[in-house]
Amino acid sequence: MAVPMVPLLVCIPGDIKPIKRGKRFEAPINRELRRGGRLGCVVGGGTKMCLGGPRFVTGCYLDVDVKDVNRALPALRQALLGAGSPRGTRVLNADTQEVLLIAPAAGTLRPPRRRVLPPHYPWSEGEILGYRLSPEVLALLFVVQSGTYPVFRVLDWSGPAVPPAEVVRQLLRRRERRYALGRRTYGIGWMPTSLQSAVLIPGRLDEGRIERTGLTVPVLWRHRRRRYCAFDSWPNFDQFLRKLFGLEPTTGTERLMNEVGVGSLAHHLAVWSAPESVTAEQAFALFTAYVRKDRDKPFVPATAPLRQFVRELRSYYNRRCAAAEDQPWAGKFRAAEAFMIVPIKKFRADEVRELVRGLAHRHGLTAYDPHREEVFVGTPRGERPNGKLLTMR
Questions:
Q1: CA separation (Å) from 22 to 47, 83, 390?
Q2: How many CB atoms within 10 Å of residue 11?
Q3: End-to-end alpha carbon distance in the chain
Q4: Which of 53, 65, 73, 184 has the fewest beta carbons under 10 Å from its own?
Q5: pTM score > 0.70 for this model?
Q6: Higher confidence at residue 181 or residue 137?
């Protein structure tokens, strides 16, 4: 009869790429486990990267299946120490999320001195919870996944008290205006196992914030197949909700991500021919309507100045960039969009913003930077340049 295998996860921080991971860690681990009596083997692994700004490797992980944890740990420890595992290395039981070995310093690997089990929250799947942000603001959380690492859908509603059950059901059925709320589910202390680097989540829930409504709605497949947004602690989730519902100031980039669902991997500028002056708040409403492709979005015509703007913008970088990958664009754009959204690589944003600002003034166009919440108003040709900058309060 086959012996059941126990899955372990070895998390190693540092700039460790796949080939180096295999030679430095995977081969020694397999060798030590084999010497110990065929205790198991490495069955997979991967690389962890930082995705904000320039991408770089932050660490790696190995999936190891073993027959006996107690016999396998000394072999794992020997292999990792021999490979020079860096500070922060961890060995975890992937089933129980228990930390088995830690490296508080380079050249050491030992069991943790204090065993801290992850919390288990008592809510049931499908339960509607009220989360008190202030005396007058209550947010609604729909429990998509219960247990140690809960996953919620945040409903597009806030008020002083829990609304009637029929209102809650309507909120679950309708498509929310806030893009991020409608297309994401939010997990606390949750990450895919393959990306997990720690299980001791800092910060605990203030249970006085939770109001159990007694309402449970069955979780459907459409509630589960949305994109996830993970937080490493309750305080970070609480801060996110406070910004989302206007209780704390938020940056333009955070607002884009929370309400529109863009802005994390690229910088965006919008350019169009506006018949009259536009405030930053009006520009943001127009930007979100076009990103969401709302059916009732205002009509914006494609104009000759906008086409000339695109020709000059592209020719400027075509002359200076020999290869396509050297250009600052993070996606496609064209004048036929009328309300044209230009995606830019984040580290080239300042450079492109100044060029766009100058070209918009020259051709009498309006440009909007939602990350800085600024509107650049141009002056048509033949008139005295008198561009002005409007900043949202």
A1: 11, 11, 55
A2: 20
A3: 70
A4: 53
A5: no
A6: 137
